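Notes to self, mannitol dehydrogenase:
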Amino acid sequence: MAKSPEEEHPKKALGWAARDSSGVLSPFKFSRRATGDKDVTFRVLYCGICHSDLHMIKNEWGSSTYPLVPGHEIVGVVTEVGSKVQNFKVGDKVGVGCMVGSCHSCDSCSNDLENQCSKMILTYGAKYHDGTTTYGGYSDLMVADEHFVVRIPENLPLDAGAPLLCAGITVYSPLRYYGLDKPGMQVGVVGLGGLGHVAVKFAKAMGVKVTVISTSPNKKKEALEHLGADSFLVSKEQDQMQAAQGTLDGIIDTVSANHPLLPLIGLLKTNGKLVMVGAPEKPLELPVFPLLMGRKMVGGSCIGGMKETQEMIDFAAKHNITADIEVIPMDYVNAAMERLVKVDVRYRFVIDIGNTLNSSN
Ligand SMILES: NC(=O)c1ccc[n+]([C@@H]2O[C@H](COP(=O)([O-])OP(=O)(O)OC[C@H]3O[C@@H](n4cnc5c(N)ncnc54)[C@H](O)[C@@H]3O)[C@@H](O)[C@H]2O)c1
Ligand SMILES: [Zn+2]
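result:
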């Protein structure tokens, strides 16, 4: 008979797990594997709450298994390293993002695109090489293959840096890959949430002119004055949207729910690119004619490879890019999830795991 999550590995761990698609999280005792030759073990200090965690605890993508410990914006301090670990030592500040394994031999892996490997192993809710379930960062301890561990630069704060492990790379990678990183270019960011607000910061640091497109007029002042966006469009205001037709080289669409693409495609210049990174649970309607007429393109992007993730973190540290966060205690996580549904956070919740996750919860 298979061992229980609490007994299958030698290291005792405590996390918060959802038990079913109600998505309610509660304390969960499980275990982590012993530090292998190439493993880095670290004490988790902070973990961001990504909207994907919300999709997953509620099984909105239909792939969740329970108990599910979410969390893939994980940072902490190394407590132990395996004998063959080359890049990390005890005391280092490190992070783990959305994946913890891949095949290391396919074309994608050979090209530093582990995120595109068909055998990529997600940080939680997946099966690891040894057949055991992966559990995420809403927990006190992580053990991960050093290949999937990122070094956090000294000047990057751990709490506000944590969201970069998912939100950061998810927007950095398409800006680079789709060539939307050239100074002076005009790039739109749709959905000013966790991903969207760091997209504005990365694009600005690349020298791009940024237009935020949002349903909420009340985010305008902050987008322009605080995040440094160059302009702001309220997507429901026909006049504004009409006046901005054909002005953008590209758009990063971070919206988490169903929304019309036609107005966004209209904002693109000829040859413009609409890049989807948000992951709504239902398919979106794609109007084809406006694509044909302007030779426009709709693409997608999913996190980024490990090499690029380290590059993104180093770029963020150099340009002082962090997420705007609300730090919360572990036992506030269910309330935080409810607020995330209502888009009531500016702009990312980060759980203070180090100080607030303990067995008395
Ligand atoms: N592609 C990837 O690799 C990747 C990585 C991380 C997250 N995601 C996905 O990206 C999406 C955004 O994640 P997040 O953590 O930034 O979420 P978030 O909740 O912080 O932000 C989502 C934004 O979308 C806006 N929004 C929601 N519904 C909308 C609607 N109907 N019309 C217009 N705007 C709407 C909200 O106002 C909010 O600003 C999620 O679907 C998430 O699963 C994808
Ligand atoms: Zn995420």
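- DSSP finds twelve helices and 17 strands in the chain.
- The chain has two domains: 11-166+324-356, 167-300.
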